[in-house]
Every structure is written in structure tokens, then in C-alpha cells.
Write a structure and sequence with these properties.
This protein is an alpha/beta fold. The protein is built from 11 helices and 12 strands. It has 2 domains: about 60 residues, no CATH class; about 240 residues, TIM Barrel. Helix 3 runs parallel beside helix 4. The structure holds zinc ion.
């Protein structure tokens, strides 16, 4: 049954231009907007429509739902810990892994509910979530996040993240916070088979999201990219977050993070890279040197960058 927001002010965009539409009405049915128009026009169109729920919008603004392109919903559990307030990224992660190794389904679902409620209250109706830590023995799964989103009505790109290189392999995370690569790929397949919805109006999609160059092998990066493209799902990862990461990549792979991702088949338009903060002139040039290839999209978390002073 349609819902009619009657006589409101709509702030939206027409093309790239912002517009303010006074004395307009909005009609939606399910999760599709079916009409936006002047009050009289919409009223006439609905005159013979039964079962319309009418909402008085005269004291409200209506805006398109905001989209959050990167989040770690579970990290609400450890937000504001004093012991890491001044830490840079690697120290921040190293300290928090010792807490995160204890997460379980209940904790992740609860944190996701809190985070999603905050997002909804700020006008966000679609979020991405990069959930990448599955400690050994935990019952936390991608479902922990999906159940929270479903309960609160949030549209979500749930990124099945991954970490496979622990301290013993030269990575940053403790060994009990990483998974075997075969187990990761099998669970990625399970998540897509079970939960991914490719419908244009889908409320739930699965993306594949290796965490970072310092917690993933090049083989898993390549295999994840190949698998995601076979299945038609998006990819997602962190890149060039800090100087520490650059040093790590130069020492371990002999190249900086962005060229390294290119070597692993990740510089494609289906990859929204997150962070991409620690840039050099050389790295900023890479799109031009690869002009024949589409350019990866970049999304930066301003809060996270400011928090880490990176
Ligand atoms: Zn992140």
C-alpha cells in the first residue's frame, strides 16, 4: 500500500544541481519512491487509490537517504578506549586486536545495532560494513551484521572481510585472529550463495573485502578478486592508509600499496578503495600511467583519518 507524505519541502538533486521543492508531496510503495510532485498534482493522482497512508509533512523536510560507504560496525564495542586515544594505526590495531579476539556473534550483532541506529538517526539509510575479523573459535559470522541491519531496516552492503597473514607469517594481526585462506574463500562463497541479492532494490548485498596489505597474502587478494568477478559482487579494501603501511609494502613486496594492488588485479572500477590517504606524487600519477584501464574509486573516511592523524 502506498504512503503519501503530504505537503512537505523536498531537498534533493536534479542531475548534479541541488534543488529545494516547496509544497511538494512524496509517495512511496514498499522501498520504491513512486511519485514526487506538487501537492495538488500528487493529490489528484492518488484520489482513487485505496488504502493510502497519509503523513502530514508540512513541518518536515524530506531528503534522499544518505549513503555511508565505509564502516566497521563491530568497532563500536571498543570506541573511546583511553589506552589507544593517541595511537597511530598499527599501534591502535595491535592494542585492539587483544580485545577483538574475544568477539562473538552476540557482541557483533549488538554493536552493529548500536551503530546502525546512530546512522539511521543521522539520515543514513544505506551503509557498507567491512567486517574482517573472525577470531579462531568465534561464532561471529557475517550474519551477525546482517541480522542487525534486517532488524532495523537498514539497506546494507555487508563486506565479508578477511585476514589470513598473522604475526608468524610477518603480518600485523595475532595468529588467532586470522583464518586459513581456504576457509575464507569457502565462507565467502557461502555468504554470497545464502545472502547476496542482486535485485536493483535489494536490501542486502555481499561484497568481498580482504582487509589490508599487512594482513592478507597476494594470493588471497588475487583469488578473492577473481572469485568476486566470477560471482558479480563488488570488492572492497583498505589501501595506503599510513606511512607504516607504505614501509611494510616496500619491505615485503618491493613496491608501494597502490602499485601492489595493481599487481594483484585490484585496480578496476569494481573496487572502491578506502583510505588512500598516504599518497606521493608517484602514486597520484598511477591513474594516468594506466590510462587504458578504468580507475579504481576512492572513498575516504574523514573521521578515521583525523582520528589516526594519517
Ligand atoms: Zn576501515
Amino acid at each position: 500500500m502506498p504512503t503519501h507524505i503530504h505537503d512537505t519541502t523536498v531537498i534533493t538533486c536534479v542531475g548534479a544541481e541541488p534543488v529545494v521543492l516547496e509544497a511538494h508531496s512524496v509517495v512511496f510503495d514498499g522501498n520504491r519512491i513512486t511519485q514526487v510532485g506538487p501537492v495538488d498534482e500528487v493529490g489528484a493522482a492518488l484520489r482513487d487509490t485505496p488504502g493510502v497512508t497519509r503523513i502530514d509533512g508540512s513541518h518536515h523536510l524530506v531528503i534522499p537517504g544518505l549513503i555511508n560507504t565505509h564502516h566497521h560496525l563491530y568497532q563500536t564495542l571498543t570506541r573511546g578506549l583511553a589506552c589507544v586515544q593517541d595511537a597511530e594505526l598499527f599501534d591502535w590495531l595491535t592494542a585492539l586486536y587483544t580485545r577483538w579476539r574475544h568477539i562473538d556473534h552476540h557482541a557483533v550483532k549488538l554493536a552493529a545495532q548500536v551503530s546502525i541506529a546512530e546512522l539511521l538517526l543521522s539520515g543514513c539509510t544505506t551503509t557498507s560494513d567491512h567486517f574482517y575479523i573472525f577470531p579462531q573459535g568465534t561464532d561471529a559470522r557475517i550474519e551477525s551484521v546482517l541480522e542487525a541491519a534486517d532488524a532495523l531496516g537498514m539497506r546494507i552492503h555487508a563486506c565479508r572481510g578477511s585476514m589470513s597473514v598473522g604475526e608468524s607469517g610477518g603480518g600485523l594481526p595475532p595468529d588467532d585472529c586470522v583464518q586459513e585462506e581456504g576457509d575464507i574463500l569457502r565462507d565467502c562463497e557461502r555468504a554470497i550463495d545464502t545472502w547476496h541479492d542482486a535485485d536493483p532494490l535489494a536490501m542486502r548485498r555481499i561484497d568481498l573485502a580482504p582487509c589490508s596489505p599487512f594482513s592478507i597474502s597476494p594470493e588471497l587478494l588475487r583469488e578473492t578478486a577473481t572469485f568476486a568477478r566470477e560471482r558479480g559482487v563488488l570488492l572492497h579494501t583498505h589501501a595506503a592508509e599510513t606511512k607504516d603501511e607504505e614501509v611494510y609494502c616496500l619491505e615485503k613486496f618491493g613496491m608501494r600499496p597502490i602499485p601492489y594492488l595493481g599487481e594483484c588485479g585490484w585496480l578496476r572500477p569494481d573496487v572502491p578503495g578506502t583510505a588512500c590517504i598516504w599518497t606521493t606524487r608517484t602514486r597520484r600519477c598511477w591513474p594516468r600511467r594506466r590510462r587504458a584501464s578504468p580507475i579504481v574509486r576512492v572513498r575516504t573516511c574523514g573521521w578515521g583519518a583525523a582520528r589516526r592523524a594519517s
